[in-house]
Protein backbone atom coordinates (compact mmCIF):
# COMPACT_ATOMS: atom_id res chain seq x y z
CA UNK A 1 0.00 0.00 0.00
CA UNK A 2 2.74 2.59 0.76
CA UNK A 3 4.29 1.96 -2.68
CA UNK A 4 0.92 2.60 -4.34
CA UNK A 5 0.52 5.83 -2.37
CA UNK A 6 3.95 7.01 -3.51
CA UNK A 7 2.92 6.41 -7.13
CA UNK A 8 -0.34 8.31 -6.57
CA UNK A 9 1.59 11.12 -4.86
CA UNK A 10 3.83 11.36 -7.93
CA UNK A 11 0.79 11.49 -10.21
CA UNK A 12 -0.73 14.30 -8.13
CA UNK A 13 2.53 16.28 -8.20
CA UNK A 14 2.74 15.76 -11.97
CA UNK A 15 -0.87 16.88 -12.54
CA UNK A 16 -0.56 19.87 -10.18
CA UNK A 17 2.60 20.96 -12.02
CA UNK A 18 0.76 20.72 -15.35
CA UNK A 19 -2.13 22.73 -13.95
CA UNK A 20 0.06 25.57 -12.66
CA UNK A 21 2.13 25.49 -15.84
CA UNK A 22 -1.04 25.96 -17.89
CA UNK A 23 -2.33 28.67 -15.52
CA UNK A 24 0.83 30.68 -16.22
CA UNK A 25 0.34 30.27 -19.98
CA UNK A 26 3.87 28.93 -20.50
CA UNK A 27 5.01 27.34 -23.76
CA UNK A 28 4.04 23.69 -24.20
CA UNK A 29 6.81 23.31 -26.76
CA UNK A 30 9.30 24.31 -24.05
CA UNK A 31 7.62 21.84 -21.68
CA UNK A 32 8.02 18.95 -24.11
CA UNK A 33 11.60 19.93 -24.95
CA UNK A 34 12.71 20.33 -21.32
CA UNK A 35 10.72 17.58 -19.58
CA UNK A 36 13.47 14.96 -19.80
CA UNK A 37 16.48 17.29 -19.57
CA UNK A 38 16.72 16.70 -15.82
CA UNK A 39 17.77 13.10 -16.45
CA UNK A 40 21.16 14.53 -17.40
CA UNK A 41 21.84 14.07 -13.69
CA UNK A 42 22.39 10.38 -14.47
CA UNK A 43 25.79 11.40 -15.82
CA UNK A 44 26.96 11.36 -12.20
CA UNK A 45 27.01 7.58 -12.55
CA UNK A 46 29.96 7.96 -14.91
CA UNK A 47 32.04 8.84 -11.82
CA UNK A 48 30.74 6.03 -9.60
CA UNK A 49 27.51 4.77 -8.03
CA UNK A 50 27.81 6.88 -4.89
CA UNK A 51 28.32 10.16 -6.77
CA UNK A 52 25.66 9.13 -9.26
CA UNK A 53 23.11 8.53 -6.52
CA UNK A 54 23.85 11.87 -4.84
CA UNK A 55 23.62 13.87 -8.08
CA UNK A 56 20.54 11.99 -9.24
CA UNK A 57 18.77 12.40 -5.88
CA UNK A 58 19.53 16.14 -5.71
CA UNK A 59 17.96 16.52 -9.12
CA UNK A 60 15.01 14.21 -8.50
CA UNK A 61 13.95 15.31 -5.02
CA UNK A 62 10.97 17.65 -4.74
CA UNK A 63 12.97 20.00 -2.52
CA UNK A 64 15.03 22.01 -5.04
CA UNK A 65 12.29 22.64 -7.62
CA UNK A 66 9.91 23.63 -4.83
CA UNK A 67 12.44 26.10 -3.43
CA UNK A 68 12.93 27.53 -6.92
CA UNK A 69 9.15 27.80 -7.42
CA UNK A 70 8.87 29.82 -4.21
CA UNK A 71 11.87 32.01 -5.16
CA UNK A 72 10.51 32.55 -8.68
CA UNK A 73 7.16 33.65 -7.27
CA UNK A 74 8.72 35.98 -4.72
CA UNK A 75 11.02 37.57 -7.30
CA UNK A 76 8.49 37.47 -10.17
CA UNK A 77 10.87 35.49 -12.39
CA UNK A 78 8.68 33.81 -14.99
CA UNK A 79 11.53 31.94 -16.69
CA UNK A 80 12.63 30.38 -13.43
CA UNK A 81 9.04 29.52 -12.55
CA UNK A 82 8.53 27.84 -15.92
CA UNK A 83 11.67 25.69 -15.59
CA UNK A 84 10.91 24.86 -11.95
CA UNK A 85 7.39 23.69 -12.79
CA UNK A 86 8.77 21.50 -15.59
CA UNK A 87 11.34 20.14 -13.14
CA UNK A 88 8.63 19.39 -10.58
CA UNK A 89 6.50 17.74 -13.27
CA UNK A 90 9.47 15.59 -14.29
CA UNK A 91 10.03 14.42 -10.72
CA UNK A 92 6.33 13.70 -10.20
CA UNK A 93 6.18 11.81 -13.49
CA UNK A 94 9.20 9.72 -12.49
CA UNK A 95 7.61 8.77 -9.16
CA UNK A 96 4.29 8.06 -10.85
CA UNK A 97 6.07 5.66 -13.21
CA UNK A 98 7.99 4.00 -10.38
CA UNK A 99 11.39 5.64 -10.68
CA UNK A 100 12.49 6.42 -7.17
CA UNK A 101 15.39 8.08 -5.42
CA UNK A 102 18.56 6.03 -5.65
CA UNK A 103 20.64 4.25 -3.06
CA UNK A 104 24.43 4.22 -3.61
CA UNK A 105 24.32 0.44 -3.91
CA UNK A 106 23.07 0.51 -7.51
CA UNK A 107 21.04 2.49 -10.03
CA UNK A 108 18.07 0.13 -9.81
CA UNK A 109 18.12 0.15 -6.00
CA UNK A 110 15.48 2.81 -5.22
CA UNK A 111 13.37 3.99 -2.33
CA UNK A 112 10.23 2.74 -4.09
CA UNK A 113 11.59 -0.79 -4.15
CA UNK A 114 12.38 -0.65 -0.43
CA UNK A 115 8.80 0.26 0.53
Topology readout:
Blueprint: H1 2-23, H2 28-34, H3 49-60, H4 63-75, H5 78-97, E1 102-103, E2 106-110, H6 111-114
Antiparallel strand pairs: 1-2
Helix pairs in contact: 1-5, 4-5
Describe the structure in your own words.
- By secondary structure, the protein is mainly alpha-helical.
- It has one domain.
- It has helices at 2-23, 28-34, 49-60, 63-75, 78-97, 111-114; strands at residues 102-103, 106-110.
- Strands 1-2 form a two-stranded antiparallel sheet.
- The mean pLDDT is 95.
How many structural units, i.e. domains? 1
Work out the helix count.
Answer: 6
Oligomer: single chain
Mean pLDDT: 95
Strand order of the largest sheet: 1-2
- Radius of gyration, Cα only, in angstroms? 14 Å
Number of distinct beta strands: 2
Structural category: mainly alpha
Distance between the termini: 9 Å
What would you call the shape? globular
User: What share of the residues lie within helices?
Assistant: 55-70%
The major beta sheet can be summarized as: 2 strands, antiparallel
Weakly predicted, low-confidence segments:
none
H/E order of the elements? HHHHHEEH
- Strand percent estimate: 5-15%
Give a quick set of tags describing it.
two-stranded antiparallel ribbon, 115 residues, globular, mainly alpha
Concise account of the structure shown:
About 70% of the residues lie in helices and about 5% in strands. The chain is mostly helical and about 120 residues long.
Amino acid sequence: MPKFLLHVEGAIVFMASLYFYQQNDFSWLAFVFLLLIFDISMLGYLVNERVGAVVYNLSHSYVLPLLFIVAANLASLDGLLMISLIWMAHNGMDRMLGYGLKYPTGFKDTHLQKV
